[in-house]
């Protein structure tokens, strides 16, 4: 790349914001653009909280990436004097099929992410407010927990601007980005944005911007989040007494207690119906609410009949194999595509940004695990 290259990054979410920041630190002149702003309500990186955990089962890179991400989140907390990371622990409840939890142990140890193995007896002694029926044992990641989402995205953009980056809030209106002949990005205000390199980290909009190369390789699903009021004058169900928790028995339910008094967050990780992130009405499914209430009353009996105090509709942008999509456009060496967070990308934002910025600046190829060619080996870029 030439000295002080000009790079345009489209999308100020977890992947785009951090990539823009690290490109800037590599010496590039970087313009970051987003249609509705960092952490907005339509973005996959919006909302209040996300889990940060190293448990991913066996034979995958994400546990090591989480270990590095934990370091980078902590570093930036100190740099910006803001808090994003709450290390209240992550409890994985293991039932009859415990292959995920068993497979995670060696990966956690190798990545030096601290954890404990807990017997059923220890679980019931430590958290009597949880009904552990159907649970055999558990893994507690002691140094993991949750991250604030919306506020962290905003802080990344603020840090990017403070370090000399340029931020624009506007929409890209190009219709044929898969074509080879465009030279700049047409914006909604009629202006054109040019650069030596372009990075698209547009989350659920990737398929619409690149219908031929991405298309349905990023499928967008509606995910409903529920927040319940905890019992009056006690803290058994807030973050002072409970860790983040995940339960693979039956459906994959998980939850985050507390976070600035927002209530007891719980949701079903099962992929929901297809969803339009631009025009979709963000109204929760009442049927799913009933299922969540039944589960909550079973697993957390003291929360039975608790009032629903807040809801949120988010979305996942899923790749077919749940691995990230990070690659050059097969027809454009100057265009990089980042997406497919698949519901687990947010925590990895800083490590993805660090990694991708290095690949771009040093003209390296992306890790094959993330490349587009994995979907059709005969079309290797």
Descriptors:
single chain, alpha/beta, FAD/NAD(P)-binding domain, D-Amino Acid Oxidase, Chain A, domain 2, 6-stranded mixed sheet, 19 strands
Explain what the structure shows:
This protein is globular. With 381 residues, the protein is α/β, with parallel strands linked by helices. It has an eight-stranded mixed beta sheet, with helices on both faces. The chain has two domains: 168 residues, FAD/NAD(P)-binding domain; 157 residues, D-Amino Acid Oxidase, subunit A, domain 2 (D-Amino Acid Oxidase, Chain A, domain 2), CATH 3.30.9. The protein is built from eight helices and 19 strands. β10 and β11 form a beta hairpin.
List the helices and strands and how they pair.
Elements: E1 6-10, H1 14-25, E2 29-34, E3 49-52, H2 62-80, E4 85-86, E5 90-94, H3 99-110, E6 115-119, H4 120-126, E7 137-141, E8 145-148, H5 150-162, E9 166-169, E10 185-186, E11 192-193, E12 197-200, H6 206-209, E13 219-228, E14 244-247, E15 253-256, E16 264-268, H7 286-299, E17 308-318, E18 325-329, E19 332-339, H8 349-361
Parallel strand pairs: 1-2, 1-12, 2-9, 5-14, 12-19
Antiparallel strand pairs: 3-8, 4-8, 5-7, 6-7, 10-11, 13-16, 13-17, 14-15, 15-16, 18-19
Helix pairs in contact: 1-5, 1-8, 2-8
